[in-house]
Design brief:
The complex is a heterodimer of chains A (117) and B (114). With 117 residues, chain A is mainly beta. Chain A is built from no helices and eleven strands. Chain B is mainly β. In chain B, β8 and β9 form a beta hairpin. Chain B is globular and about 45 Å long. The chains are: A mainly beta (117), B mainly beta (114). At the A-B interface, β5, β9 and β10 of A face β6 and β11 of B.
């Protein structure tokens, strides 16, 4: 159990276009989802926290107008990269959190590789 | 400043040898502690976690980690590595229990040689 999927797994787009990435929790409800960005051979950098039914909370330095996050249901969060540029090329990973029995865990999706040409 | 440190960027180990990956944190209170593994081009898989209780934690794939409060460390160990263990390993913490945000270390890349 506790599977998180992402779609697409990879995408190539032209500079100036927008790209939407979906993150789904397949077998549990997630009130909170997270979006990360990872550059080659680097660690994960948290971009924003997505809460169902409310506005996302962005980390310092992340442009909220460029990276639009929508958490429309307890199983789906989307990240839209608007007016993409080559510097937005990266590996984007989402996670969904679940608290249970005094424990806590984040489950990660397989990631989406975005290449902007 | 609050931080998670993985001192070793890259470690090479012979197959069958033992492994220890280091992780240190700098927070006022004991955070929730995690170890994740990432294969190339993949998402992250949780190996183990520590919240409280027994300081020696057993995880999946034969990994274990020991929490040492006096050293602010949470080192990952495996007695005998397999070629399939080659991957990137991340230590992570949740320091603010109200917002559940994970802070990751910089990662340690593990290479296995025959």
């Amino acid at each position: 159990g506790a599977v998180v999927s992402q779609h697409p797994s990879w995408v190539i787009c032209k500079s100036g276009t927008s790209v939407k990435i979906e993150c789904r929790s397949l077998d549990f409800q997630a009130t909170t989802m997270f979006w990360y960005r990872q550059f080659p051979k680097q660690s994960l950098m948290l971009m924003a926290t997505s809460n169902e039914g409310s506005k996302a909370t962005y980390e310092q330095g992340v442009e909220k107008d460029k990276f639009l996050i929508n958490h429309a249901s307890l199983t789906l969060s989307t990240l839209t990269v608007t007016s993409a540029h080559p510097e937005d090329s990266s590996f984007y990973i989402c996670s969904a959190s679940r608290s249970f029995g005094g424990s806590y865990e984040q489950y990660f999706g397989p990631g989406t590789r975005l290449t902007v040409t | 400043a609050q931080s998670v440190t993985q001192p070793d960027i890259h470690i090479t180990v012979s197959e069958g040898a033992s492994l220890e990956l280091r992780c240190n944190y700098s927070y006022g209170a004991t955070p929730y502690l995690f170890w994740y593994v990432q294969s190339p081009g993949q998402g992250l898989q949780l190996l183990l976690k520590y919240f409280s209780g027994d300081t020696l934690v057993q995880g999946i794939k034969g990994f274990e980690a020991e929490f040492k409060r006096s050293q602010s460390s949470f080192n990952l160990r495996k007695p005998s590595v397999h070629w399939s263990d080659a991957a990137e390993y991340f230590c992570a913490v949740v320091a603010n229990f109200g917002n559940e945000k994970l802070t990751f270390g910089t990662g340690t890349r593990l290479t296995i040689i025959p």
